[in-house]
Design a protein that fits this description.
single chain; 428 residues; alpha/beta; FAD/NAD(P)-binding domain; 3 domains; 7-stranded mixed beta sheet; 5-stranded parallel beta sheet; 21% strand; globular; binds flavin-adenine dinucleotide
Length: 428
């Protein structure tokens, strides 16, 4: 689908000092930081748009995100502070969720029990048992005795981690900061696209070759164009980097092992237009217990509109893919789950105008990179430049804000500061 906003991009400089691959959050953060330091830069983007995994589209006159939607970690997310300074229309995400048990709203005691179970799990995963460097499966930190609420707690944490908690390192949890979240009135993708206004970005430039021999970088693209510079920042998602571009000379073994050791996080939106939804209020998550089939995630009445997100996790997406369902099969599945929960009369006016498929997109191949148990040093390992000329950046390098736009933007800026310092000191 087409982005709702396309920024005004500027032509690439003839002889840039730095090349950046990718115009997602990390590439935009890096380019802005380099420009602010007076370093000339050129950004090469494979798609015909900027923003990467943040994309806002217009549906029935509303701005809806098909990728990132939440500005997580308000106190440390650089895009929250920047958004405030730019006068972006931020609104705080509510803390409380709807709680449903089977087909009815939860009673007060059930709402309290649900909240207690999540609070106990959060404490166990982010404090107490979890020490820095604890690289066990995160599932092992879940406290016993969560009762009937335990499976829902594990499902929600697995959803927002991108994989079931047995497959996620506990090491990432102590520094995650999910409180104080925000939304943007006209979408996260639009905000990022506005941040690309005036940047030198060339679209439809898929980089296929990276030659970093001899203390310089030379890039080749699918259409045969070549580019040269003194330094390179690579923001290609880890899931894509596994299979390309080709590096000459090959990357050092430790760097290759760090890249290849990430696993693929899966999280997809089905965008619902659902005037008769039983949920009231705006922007609240719904926790649904006590039924065999429930949505892994449900964000209700986005900004007070009839739009909702049904969130698919890895298990649900994998089962639908294995059944060869395709996007229409996802629509049928979502409708069936909601009809089963709330009754057929409730879903009569439900339509599903969009379903994301980031896992099948060649430029993302998933939603974000996950550190499996035993792979905790990978993020830090990729902070080291390769050969003094190649830096990596992107969501996968952030431990504090992993898998997020804010983390990607911060990592792009971090790499850019390191590159600018190296260039100005004459060592790159
Ligand atoms: C459905 C979904 C929901 C999400 N929800 C949230 C959320 O609510 N909040 C949040 O903070 N995060 C969320 N995320 C995660 C967030 O979108 C990503 O962490 C973030 O956008 C990653 O930014 P990035 O710059 O690291 O990578 P990307 O955005 O993927 O940017 C990398 C760019 O590199 C380009 N590229 C790839 N290969 C090449 C090549 N060979 N040559 C040239 N260019 C290339 C790609 O086209 C892309 O534009 C979500 C993700 C998904 C999929």
């Amino acid at each position: 689908m087409q982005p709702a906003y396309r920024p005004r991009l500027t032509p690439l400089p003839e002889a840039p000092e730095v090349l950046i691959i990718g115009a997602g959050a990390a590439g935009i953060g890096a380019a802005r930081t380099l420009q602010a330091r007076g370093v000339s830069v050129a950004v090469l983007e494979a798609r015909d748009r900027v923003g990467g995994r943040a994309l806002t589209v217009a549906l029935r006159g509303h701005a809806l995100d098909l990728g990132a939607h939440w500005l997580h970690a308000g106190p440390i997310n650089p895009l929250v502070a920047l958004g405030r300074a730019r006068g972006e229309r931020l609104r705080r995400a509510p803390q409380e969720s709807h709680v449903w048990v089977g087909r009815r709203p939860g009673r007060a005691d059930e709402v309290r029990a649900n909240a207690r179970a999540f609070a106990r799990a959060d404490r166990a995963m982010t404090g107490g048992a979890a020490q820095p460097g604890d690289d066990r499966p995160a599932a092992r930190a879940l406290p016993p005795g969560l009762g009937p609420w335990g499976s829902r707690v594990a499902q929600v944490h697995g959803l927002v981690s991108g994989r079931p908690l047995e497959q996620v390192s506990l090491n990432d949890f102590p520094s995650m900061e999910y409180s104080d979240n925000f939304f943007l009135a006209d979408g996260y993708g639009n905000y990022l696209a506005r941040l690309a206004d005036g940047l030198p970005v060339a679209l439809a430039q898929a980089v296929t070759r990276i030659d970093w021999s001899g203390g310089r970088v030379r890039l080749g693209t699918a259409d045969g164009t070549s580019y040269r510079a003194r330094a390179l920042i690579v923001t290609i998602p880890m899931m894509v980097l596994r299979d390309g571009p080709a590096f000459t000379p090959p990357l050092p073994n430790a760097v290759r092992a760090a890249i290849d050791g990430f696993t693929t996080g899966i999280y997809e939106h089905a965008v619902l237009h659902w005037p008769s939804s039983p949920f009231r209020g705006r922007d609240r998550l719904a926790a649904i217990h006590g039924r065999r089939r429930t949505p892994p995630g449900l964000l209700t009445r986005i900004d007070g509109t009839p739009f909702h997100y049904y969130e698919l996790d890895l298990r649900e997406a994998a089962a639908l893919d294995a059944a060869g369902s395709g996007v229409d099969g996802v629509r049928r599945h979502v409708r069936a789950v909601l009809a089963d929960l709330f009754g057929h009369h409730r879903v009569r006016d439900l339509s599903i105008p969009a379903v994301s498929t980031w896992r099948h997109d060649p430029w993302s191949r998933g939603s974000w990179a996950v550190v499996p148990p035993g792979h905790a040093p990978a993020r830090q390992r990729l902070h080291e430049p390769v050969g003094g000329t190649v830096w990596f950046a992107g969501e996968a390098l952030s431990r504090e804000q992993w898998g997020t736009v804010g983390g990607a933007f911060a990592e792009g800026a971090r790499a850019a500061v390191a590159v600018a310092t190296r260039i100005r000191s004459g060592t790159a």
